[in-house]
Amino acid sequence: MSKPLILISNDDGITSKGIRVLVEAMQTFGEVVVVAPDSPQSGMGHAITIGDTLKLEKSDIFDGVDAYECSGTPADCVKIAKHYVLKDRKPDLVVSGINHGSNTSISVLYSGTMSAAIEAALEGLPAIGFSLCDYSSEADFSHTVSHIIKLAKETLKRGLPKGIALNVNFPAIQKEEIKGLKICKQADAKWQEEFDERHDPYGRRYFWMAGEFVNFDKGTDNDQWAVDNNYISVVPCQYDLSSKSAMETISKEWEL
Amino acid sequence: MSKPLILISNDDGITSKGIRVLVEAMQTFGEVVVVAPDSPQSGMGHAITIGDTLKLEKSDIFDGVDAYECSGTPADCVKIAKHYVLKDRKPDLVVSGINHGSNTSISVLYSGTMSAAIEAALEGLPAIGFSLCDYSSEADFSHTVSHIIKLAKETLKRGLPKGIALNVNFPAIQKEEIKGLKICKQADAKWQEEFDERHDPYGRRYFWMAGEFVNFDKGTDNDQWAVDNNYISVVPCQYDLSSKSAMETISKEWEL
Questions:
Q1: Per-residue pLDDT tens over the stretch A182-236
Q2: Among positive and negative, which fits the CA dihedral A74, A80, A53, A60?
Q3: What residues of chain A lie within 8 A of the CB of B197, using their CB?
Q4: Which residue from A minimizes the CA distance to B223?
Q5: Is B31 exposed, middle or buried (0-12, 13-18, 19+ CB in 10 A)?
Q6: What is the per-residue burial (b if ≥16 Cβ within 10 Å, else e) of A16-37?
Q7: Predicted ipTM?
Q8: Phi and psi dihedrals of B162, rounded to 5?
Q9: Least Cα separation, residue A70 to chain B (angstroms)
Q10: pLDDT band at A1 (very low <50, low <70, confident <90, very high)
Q11: Number of neighbours of residue B150 by Cβ within 10 angstroms
């Protein structure tokens, strides 16, 4: 039986530790092709490159793996992988990550990791974004590997509903502390920004955006609760943003 | 009675024609503050600036309007407006646009215009993104103004459900051709990319991403149908991406 074809991307860039762990995990059962950014693309959301050019270079960074580094965003990487690198070959699965840092809750909107997965879902491909709640470049991913392989194989076996990509977050804990996996919803939380005002040596004002994560969600059915309580969170994310209930309310009540 | 405070941003940049039309429309009944990108940010999706600094400069581009140009993305603009420029003043409404070009269907994911509106919704503010289905920098926005004022006033009066921003698209037609306004869902369509491979004068390979819009949606209840049939489309968009139905399917059927 031929191995499943697995496309891998990420947003921390092709040299990050997280993507290497993901490549090695997928190599245990799949044929792997990597198209990943040539530099970090964190916080790029679903950005794409319009009005500028893209570069794509072959990379020998992973032994025995067909890999490319691209100057674009994670969404660009999936597009150029699908329509140029793989062309007539359709991947059986697209995985993105493993992100260095949490993508729970509202971070899914800002996440380059998830934009790669959602871009793949748009192409009708089963896709998963994996993140570890640890921003360190030397983070310990060892406890994630067996779960990632299991999730990837189950996704290959079952497929995903149309229009859905999975957002998977791992708590940064030891393997034996993991209590299991929770299918859950996106927590109702946000980033509360602060702007740190400074001046450069020429007297010009500039800002650093900083902030803290504020969780309004008191429930136990959301991804932030899951990772805070030693569970792996799995949120099925849809790219159809239409709200049926808001459509009804506005249609009935507004005067337009 | 004091005028409502209206924050305006966009993704085409502070010098674009579309934002000027929007500023002039909102000035007819509101107190306007503008924080917009200092350069075009089309296709930036929900990108934010992480690991780099932001600049913010006062602008006198609009007579009698408190305006600022920011080096960041549309989402950055709303964040710095809310937490630095306006600080203790809460806008009654946030409007973004008018975008030069369509943001129907899946374009909502790539849209900087809509990311500004969604960022405002995240802050609990009523927000609308306006787009005209004409990419020209000299596009004719005259037929949009009365509808924009009506929608803005109705949104101020009714508020929006929690977690919702409106995505409004205008067909590029004459005023008298507009058939009305449709509350609708996001069309099931996508961009089909092609990569145009070239070489620079030094022999290095690069690509232009091009593509065409492919509409799979045969219904008449979606935004693409609406603008194609001379209606103004209004899609209530939610930033909670969780799919309840996919959560159920996976919880019941998968072995995890």
A1: 999 999 999 888 999 999 999 999 999 998 899 999 999 999 999 999 999 999 9
A2: positive
A3: 84
A4: A242
A5: middle
A6: bbbbbbbbebbbeebbbbbbbb
A7: 0.93
A8: -55, 135
A9: 10
A10: low
A11: 13
